[in-house]
Write a structure and sequence with these properties.
This protein is α/β, with parallel strands linked by helices. It contains 11 helices and 8 strands. The structure holds 3-methyl-2-oxobutanoic acid.
Length: 271
């Protein structure tokens, strides 16, 4: 829902029609009003208020520290800027793994307090009961399989997941379970392209890939990464569409120079 209470143009059903038509889905992250407004105006299909906010907004090493209140603050800012795109919000670490009641309470808080359209959570069979309970409350759920950053301490590394037969088989099994439970889409992160393509062909809900190749139904990137603002992060799957980090540094240096040399402000810039 938008801030006016009307349904946004991109709905979960529309994403499923896009999959049926073979139209690819474009998704990016946003954490604030201004970025959401620009993304929405550019025609993005889905805006993810990702818990990657913990990394790019707050400077944490992992996504674990961000809280539900902080995610709700980011989500509120984004939904004010998004009139068209579907807005999906991550349930942060520790707000749904305890039990399905805790998961439902967290999802309800996000939906009630932020005007978002859907929530996303990480994991397969182990969180199935929570997924089902959230769906029973009428809240659309996006799943997230493959590299699930909230489990980084279990994995011990951010390298490609599901290269081995057993992990690949579990991922396929989990994707089917989440589809049967009623998830409207899944993110699949950093797995071999052939595996992601196989999942996309076996399930009827959209598969949005990140580092999962081109055989899926859509792509997602962290906006700060693809804009070149987080310059120190350059995995193989990341394409930089701009070098805004350099542009910003140049603009800041120019401003500092102008202030010091008294070239800013000039007569036209004063009252
Ligand atoms: O938090 C996030 O930004 C995500 C994407 C990487 C899919 O979950």
């Amino acid at each position: 829902m938008s801030t006016e209470g009307t349904v946004r143009a991109v709905t979960t059903l529309r994403l499923q029609e896009m999959k049926r038509r073979g139209e690819k889905i474009a998704m990016l992250t946003a954490y604030d009003y201004s970025m959401a407004k620009i993304l929405d105006g550019a025609g993005i299909d889905v805006i993810l208020v990702g818990d990657s906010a913990a990394n790019v907004m707050a400077g944490y090493e992992t996504t674990l520290p961000i809280t539900l209140d902080q995610m709700i603050y980011h989500a509120q800012s984004v939904t004010r800027g998004a009139k068209r795109a579907l807005v999906v919000v991550d349930l942060p670490f520790g707000t749904y793994q305890g039990n399905s009641k805790q998961a439902l309470d967290s999802a309800i808080r996000i939906m009630k307090e932020s005007q978002a359209d859907a929530i996303k959570l990480e994991g397969g069979e182990e969180i199935l009961e929570s997924v089902q309970r959230i769906l029973c409350a009428g809240i659309p759920v996006m799943g997230h399989l493959g590299l699930t950053p909230q489990s980084i301490h279990k994995f011990g590394t951010y390298t490609v997941r599901a290269k081995e037969e057993a992990e690949a088989a579990k991922l396929i099994h989990d994707a089917h379970l989440l589809e049967e439970a009623g998830c409207f889409a899944l993110v699949i992160e950093k797995v071999p392209a052939a595996l992601a393509a196989r999942v996309a062909s076996e399930v009827n809900i959209p598969i949005i890939g990140i580092g999962a190749g081109s055989g899926v139904d859509g792509q997602v990137l962290v906006s700060y990464d693809m804009l070149g603002i987080t310059g120190d992060f350059s995995p193989r799957f990341l394409r930089r569409y701009a070098e805004l980090g350099n542009e910003m540094r140049n603009a800041f240096s120019h401003y500092i120079e102008d202030v010091k040399s008294q070239h800013f402000p000039n007569e036209k810039e004063e009252y």
